[in-house]
Write a structure and sequence with these properties.
About 75% of the residues lie in helices and about 5% in strands. It is mainly α and about 500 residues long. The two termini are about 40 Å apart.
Length: about 500
């Protein structure tokens, strides 16, 4: 029996079941990002039990973060082609299995595979699909919805940091990991909440696309030729699968997305070491274990305030057009906080640091999916978020061991924190210059259009009408002709 077609909504409902999606994403961020942050509390325990140095022990946290981000496109792929619900439930089972197996670890290499690879893979299947679902249900209240959903990371860190420390004291690190494994099974419940929704703005399938009058004949012929390119594609819905594969990642060539991708690499490199080394650094300057765990709790709860307030503020009419600048400001402020951290060597001084860093960390984490959606559009958000989080993978893998090597080499945390701070500031500066260049170019084109004094022409591709001068029209026609010919010759 044929499966019933899902009703297409004219646009995101901005409410209704969408708030249950937000609640589900909130729980997903608790079970993934908050648990990942709390792994840093095990750092000293692992180091003492296995007798290893900073750099080797830091690989555990790095591999978890790297696997989570490296496999994010796999999570998006399962969500797009199978089901968001299936992906998150499968991820919950894998993550729980990894944590439970880690409680029986006999070496760091065992932890690399179980806690690092297996748990990280499970988190990857849950994280980006859950975040993308929020974007499908909200438009006008998108930043606020993301602020609430992403605050799970801060709330989870605030609650779990002292709880994990208590569990370690009562049941040892093995018992704490076993209990966390059971807790992470709640991801399966979160997956059940992710009811799929179909929007009219979503990309058309190939048969629907070929029926449109505005599609060039050459492109129709290409799509028809692609539909017979192999028996496997014939088996999987012919043109539909082939067209989806062709168009799913076309945003990768957008200049705006390329700049965002490069800035994300430097931002991810800068933010990761602090979550790994804040507790060990606090212990090294004479702060007690409970106070060091409390710093992580402060960072977590202020992270929540940053999530929600920045989400709410950037949804206001006065700031909605400037969300890009709000994002780069938050990243830059976190970079400045890292630069000042080496001179803060007492608990009363580390508390304000946790407040400031936590607030701006929550702010830019909330705006990552919002800024990505503004660049690529809602229809490509799931795939784009998969790529954005994939780009976090290598920095997350490399930065904590590099920071640990600097600590082992210099005997101080100063070089590690300075490198992190400058990396985040460079990420913010890069986006700032790119935005200014784009604004200057737009102003130049507008002045060029006004100076020509020629009659404007309107032409349409069936969805969007463009108004340009005759001179610019001619250039665009020549460009499109060259582009079409080059594609036909492939």
């Amino acid at each position: 029996m044929a499966s019933p077609r899902r009703a297409r909504h004219a646009g995101p409902p901005d409410g209704g079941w969408g708030w249950m999606i937000v609640a589900g994403c909130f729980l997903v961020t608790i079970c993934t990002r908050a648990v990942t942050r709390c792994i840093s509390i095990f750092f000293v325990e692992f180091q003492a039990y296995f007798g290893q140095d900073y750099a080797r022990t830091a690989w555990i946290h790095s591999i978890v973060d790297c696997a989570t981000m490296l496999c994010a496109p796999l999570g998006s792929l399962i969500s797009n082609h199978v089901s968001c619900q299936v992906g998150i439930m499968l991820g919950g089972l894998l993550a729980s299995t990894g944590l439970i197996l880690s409680s029986f670890a006999t070496s760091l290499e065992h932890l690399y595979l179980s806690l690092g690879v297996l748990t990280g893979l499970g988190f990857a299947l849950c994280y980006s699909p859950a975040i993308a679902m929020v974007g499908k249900y909200f438009n006008k209240k998108k930043a606020l919805a993301y602020g609430i959903a992403m605050s799970g990371s801060g709330i989870g860190t605030f609650i779990l940091a002292p709880v994990v420390q208590l569990l370690i004291e009562q049941f040892s690190w093995r018992g704490a990991l076993l209990i966390l494994g059971g807790f992470v099974l709640n991801l399966c419940v979160c997956g059940a909440l992710m009811r799929p929704i179909a929007l009219k703005e979503d990309r058309k399938t190939a048969p629907e696309f070929l029926e449109q009058d505005y599609v060039p004949e050459a492109q129709k012929r290409d799509l028809k030729r692609m539909s017979i390119c192999s028996p496997l594609i014939k088996m999987w819905s012919h043109e539909c699968l082939c067209y989806c594969s062709w168009k799913e990642y076309d945003f990768l060539l957008m200049p705006g997305f390329m700049v965002l991708a490069v800035s994300v690499l430097f931002m991810a490199y800068g933010c990761s070491p602090l979550f790994v080394y804040l507790v060990p650094y606090a212990l090294s300057v004479g702060v007690s274990h409970h106070q060091a765990a409390f710093l992580m709790s402060i960072l977590g709860v202020i992270d929540i305030i940053g999530n929600i307030t920045f989400g709410w503020l950037t949804d206001r009419r006065c700031l909605k057009k400037h969300r890009h600048f709000c994002y780069l400001f938050a990243v830059g402020m976190d970079g400045l906080c890292c630069l000042f951290l080496p001179v803060l060597q007492k608990f009363p001084l580390l508390v304000p640091f946790s407040f400031t860093f936590g607030y701006f960390d929550g702010a830019y984490v909330t705006l990552i999916p919002v800024v990505t959606a503004d660049v690529v559009g809602t229809s490509s958000l799931s795939s784009a978020l998969g790529v954005v989080y994939f780009l976090h993978a290598i920095p997350y893998l490399v930065s904590p061991p590099v920071a640990g090597w600097l600590v082992d080499t210099t005997g101080s945390y100063t070089a590690s924190f300075l490198l992190s701070g400058f990396s985040m500031i460079f990420s913010s500066t890069l986006l700032c210059f790119a935005s200014l260049a784009k604004k200057i170019k737009r102003t130049h084109l507008r002045s060029l259009t006004n100076d020509t004094g020629t009659k404007q022409h309107i032409w349409t591709n069936g969805a969007i009408a463009y108004s340009v001068t005759a001179e610019l029209d001619q250039k665009d026609v020549e460009f499109l002709a060259v582009d079409t010919n080059s594609y036909s010759n492939r």
